[in-house]
């Protein structure tokens, strides 16, 4: 059976991780009650202390996995400082997870602008109004900032803030995990020394 004909039960035979991820994400879109593209994002600060939070995957291809954020936020500052990150997708309805990690690059301005234009107008205003990860004196202060930027951009297009853009994780490791009886799970890991290297596939003990 070729990689194109793989079914859920024989994913360990796949030879290409991005195609397998696309298949699993498509199945998750049909089975997860909401946000099948939600993913735990792990970063590390200058002292080596990790942070993790949920974000939304906004795109992926053979170059990597893309999400967007305020670069002045804690995760933005940690990624800009360390230039590496990890992700973990968990699809409970399918009893599957995917883990990946690797170096991080900033998406192009053109790519960030194109995505920003697809966001709801209120979300674009929010990107201007929120000083993400910094202390907020009251809910009123946030609502006032939203009102101020809504008035500023009452007409016409809302430009993308310079501090708001996207990151792309270029994985050097992608692991696929599927639950099996008696905790004898199926795991395969794709590894490569650099983000442009050839993949090696390794089957892992559960």
Describe the structure concisely for a colleague.
This protein is of the alpha+beta class. The protein has helices at residues 17-31, 74-82, 109-118, 121-129, 139-152; strands spanning 38-44, 50-56, 59-61, 64-70, 84-91, 96-106, 164-169, 173-178, 186-191, 200-204.
Descriptive overview:
The protein is α+β, with helices and mostly antiparallel strands and 206 residues long. 28% of the residues lie in helices and 32% in strands. The protein has 5 helices and 10 strands; from the N terminus they run αββββαββαααββββ. Strands 1, 2, 3, 4, 5, 6, 7, 8, 9 and 10 form a 10-stranded antiparallel β-sheet that branches. β5 and β6 form a beta hairpin. α4 (121-129) packs across α5 (139-152). It is elongated. The two termini are 25 Å apart. Residues 1-8 have low confidence and may be disordered.
Secondary-structure map with pairings?
Blueprint: H1 17-31, E1 38-44, E2 50-56, E3 59-61, E4 64-70, H2 74-82, E5 84-91, E6 96-106, H3 109-118, H4 121-129, H5 139-152, E7 164-169, E8 173-178, E9 186-191, E10 200-204
Helix pairs in contact: 4-5
Features:
alpha+beta, 5 helices, flavoprotein, single chain, about 210 residues, pyridoxine biosynthesis
Distance between the termini: 25 Å
- Poorly predicted residue ranges: 1-8
Helix percent reads 25-40%
Report the strand count: 10
What can be said about the biggest beta sheet?
10 strands, antiparallel
Q: SSE string, helix = H, strand = E?
A: HEEEEHEEHHHEEEE
Q: What is the arithmetic mean of pLDDT?
A: 93
Give the overall form: elongated
Treating each run of at least 4 consecutive H or I residues as one helix, how many helices?
Answer: 5
Radius of gyration based on Cα positions: 19 Å
What percentage of amino acids are in beta strands? 25-35%
Helix-and-strand structural type: alpha+beta
